[in-house]
Design brief:
The protein is mainly alpha-helical. It contains 3 helices and no strands. The model has no long low-confidence stretch (mean pLDDT 76).
Length: 70
């Protein structure tokens, strides 16, 4: 499921970038990208031992939610 979602997002972004270049603000690259990498690593760490993923989902959502666009 996760791999499918990643593939779909990258496919849509790739097709959009072929049609017209996508502009990204420097703030996003400096702040949001490291935060998303950290949240992904946190999720991976919590899911790696085969524990209940629901708890990891909540933690990742709490970390990522404040960075969502307004």
């Amino acid at each position: 499921v996760v791999g499918s979602n990643i593939y779909n997002v990258l496919l849509i972004l790739g097709l959009g970038a072929i049609i017209t270049p996508l502009l990204v603000r420097q703030r996003i690259v400096r702040a949001d990208v490291p935060l998303m990498i950290g949240a992904s690593l946190l999720f991976w760490f919590l899911a790696a031992d085969g524990a209940n993923i629901v708890g990891a989902d909540v933690i990742v959502a709490v970390v990522v939610a404040p960075t969502s666009p307004r």
